[in-house]
Design a protein that fits this description.
The chain has 347 residues and is an alpha/beta fold. It has 13 helices and 12 strands. Helices cover 39% and strands 16% of the residues. The strands form 2 sheets. An 8-stranded parallel barrel has the order 1-4-5-8-9-10-11-12, surrounded by 8 helices. A hairpin with a 7-residue loop joins strand 2 and strand 3. It is globular. The N and C termini lie far apart (44 Å). The mean pLDDT is 95. The structure holds ligand PBG. Ligand PBG binds next to loops.
Length: 347
């Protein structure tokens, strides 16, 4: 009889042997997600109209938390075994240089103090950027003739001024560290941001405060729902003068090498799923821990498809997170963190 196996000769290699049952599959599993890998983003504001969490419509299950509730929410994250949160603030007032970001009574420093007091073992990271705090929604100081202190006639109007923004980042980082932040996470893609933040922290006595740099952050359509969540869309233009171009791969290595030189403790790639090659490059080229940010759009699109019964939410979320880990991420910032812990426990 003409049997295909005979045609193939004696079949020694049968990879399916190692997929035969659940026990064997567990033993040979190369990358498994753990709650230890997760960082949960939290949006915090001074108050909400009814005192409860204010749902973010474009991110089902996520909310802006009023200060009065932030410590309880942080406690619930800690109780699930998630090691860290990263904070995003929605200030009461915005101005041209984002004053509330560095005011000791600003939204994030206040939230940090409340969380650290209630849940001292939870690692508190603060997203260090100005777009949530400026009235124009850009990540630093904008070049404009009516701002006599900063105006640079050599640069175009509307340009984000690099070095004046560095001064603000240094100041705000110290304010967040004084409030008790464990990790400062600069996310503005401003040249030199890690250098000045490291110097400022050390100068103020915070040499144990870590820096997780958004080292390779791309200008991305996947941040869409976040603009809703943090109420921080740019009022003109976009972020392509400071965030990276989607087509570039070598440039990510350059950005990461600079941040290593400048003293970053952790390097981040963002977004995650559409940039797995960048995560893999980061892992292969640097010894620092690598973080990846599964951003708002990555979260919302799975929810939107699952709402229509087109995808299974749990399965596709865990698959995406595992892919990000497999590519080389040691830690993942994800809005799925709390759900994922439950899903992992239920197998
Ligand atoms: C602030 C910042 C952004 C995100 C994290 N920090 C927005 C942006 O750069 O436009 C995006 C996070 C997300 O989409 O989940 N600079």
């Amino acid at each position: 009889m003409d049997h295909p196996q005979a045609a193939a000769g004696h079949l020694v290699n049968r990879p399916r042997r190692l997929r035969l049952n659940a026990g064997i599959r567990k033993l040979v599993c190369e990358n498994a997600l753990s709650p230890n890998d997760l960082i949960y983003p939290l949006f915090v504001r001074h108050a909400t109209s009814d005192g409860g969490p204010r749902p973010i419509v474009s991110m089902p299950g996520q909310s802006q938390w009023p200060l009065a509730r932030i410590a309880d929410e942080a406690q619930s994250v800690h109780d699930l075994g998630i090691p860290a949160v990263i904070l995003f603030g929605i200030p009461d007032a915005k101005d041209s240089c984002g004053t509330e970001n560095y005011s000791p009574d600003g939204i994030v420093p206040t939230a940090i103090r409340m969380i650290k007091q209630a849940v001292p073992d939870l690692v508190v990271m603060s997203d260090m950027c100005f777009c949530e705090y400026t009235d124009h929604g850009h990540c630093g100081i904008i070049n404009r003739p009516d701002d006599a202190t900063h105006y640079d006639p050599a640069m175009p109007e509307g340009y984000l001024l690099n070095d004046p923004t560095l001064d603000l980042l240094a100041k705000a980082s110290v304010a967040h560290a004084e409030a008790g932040a464990d990790v400062i996470a600069p996310s503005g893609m401003i040249d030199g941001m890690v250098t000045v933040i490291r110097q400022a922290l050390d100068g103020a006595g915070f040499d144990q405060t870590s820096i997780m740099s958004y080292a390779a952050k791309y200008s991305s359509g996947f941040y869409g729902p976040f603009r809703d969540a943090a109420e921080s869309p740019p009022s003109f233009g976009d972020r392509s003068q400071y965030q990276m171009d989607m087509g570039n791969r070598r440039e990510a290595l350059k950005e990461m090498a600079l941040d290593v030189e400048q003293g970053a403790d952790v390097l981040m790639v963002k977004p995650a799923l559409a940039y797995l090659d960048i995560i893999s490059d980061a892992r292969a080229n640097f010894d620092l821990p690598i973080a990846a940010y599964q951003v708002s759009g990555e979260y919302s699109m799975l929810h939107a498809a699952a709402e229509r019964d087109w995808l299974d939410l749990k399965r596709t979320a865990i698959e995406s997170l595992t892919a990000i880990k497999r590519a080389g991420a040691d830690m993942i910032l994800t809005y799925f963190a709390k759900d994922a812990v439950g899903w992992l426990a239920s197998g």
